Amino acid sequence: MEKMKIEIWSDVMCPFCYIGKRKFEAALEKFPHKDRVEIEWKSFQLDPDMKNEPGRNLYQYLAERKGQSLEWSKQMHDSLAQTARAVGLEYNFDRAVIANSFDAHRVMQMAKAQGLGDAAEERIFRAYFTEGKNTGDAETLATLAAEIGMDRKAVLQMLATDAYAAEVRYEIEEGQALGLRGVPFFVIDRKYGVSGAQEPAVFSEALQQSFAEWQKTHPEPLEMLSSGASCTPGEECK
Questions:
Q1: What residues contact residue 154 under an 8 Å CB cut-off, 6+ apart?
Q2: Domains in the chain with CATH codes
Q3: pLDDT tens column, 111-154
Q4: In 11-50, at which residue ranges do the beta strands (DSSP E only) sit?
Q5: CA distances from 207 to 105, 201, 215, 228, 237 (A)
Q6: Bond before 184 cis per omega within 30 degrees
Q7: Which residues pair with 224 in a beta bridge?
Q8: Residues 142, 156: contact at Cβ < 8 Å?
Q9: Distance between CA 71 and CA 59 in Å, rounded?
C-alpha cells in the first residue's frame, strides 16, 4: 500500500523538537488515515561547532553563548520544562550534558536504515533531555542503540569510522534547500511545510489538507467483497 510521506528535520539537542514530536503524534493518533502515512526523521544541527563538554553546566553555557545572565538562562529553561510537562515530557536541564550531536545523528541514520528511525529519535531525545546522558559519547550511544534492538558492537564499529557522515550532511543541506530555517521542520509530501512545535490542531489540519490532495492520485485499494470466475490477461479463464 502506498503511503503519504512526512519528513521531519530535528536535532537531538532541540527542546522544541521533542515537544513537537509529541504534539505531532497527538494529531497523527487521531488521523483516520494514519496507516497510510510514512514518517522519516531527518538530521539537522543547531550548533555544528559545539564541543563535547560533559562537565559544563548547560545554564552557564547558554548564558555565555547568548550574552545573557545566568538568571535569564535558568528562567528560559524553566519555561521550556513547563512547556514540556504540558505534553507529558520531563526535562531535567540541570542534568543535561553539553555534547555535539553529529554522532547521535549518525546513529539515527544507521537506525533509520534498519527501520528504527523513530525509535532511535525517541530514545536519544529521552536520554538527553530527561536522563542527562552524554549523547556525544560512543559507548553511551551504542548502549542506547542496543536498547531499541540494534547491535551494540556494530554501532561502536560504525562510530569509529566516518560512516553515515555524508548522509547527515546531505540531509542538513536538503532541509535548507527546502526552506528550513529552524527545527522542528515538517515537510508533507514535498508540497507543504510546517515549521515549529505547532499545536496538534495545526498538524491535524495540515494532515487532512495534504492527504485529501495526495489521495486524488493515490486512491484507496478496492476492498474485495467476493471473488468468482474470471479471465485475466494472458491466462486461461477459470
A1: none
A2: 4-55+97-217 (3.40.30.10)
A3: 999 999 999 999 999 999 999 999 999 999 999 999 999 999 99
A4: 37-43
A5: 27, 10, 12, 38, 44
A6: yes
A7: none
A8: yes
A9: 9
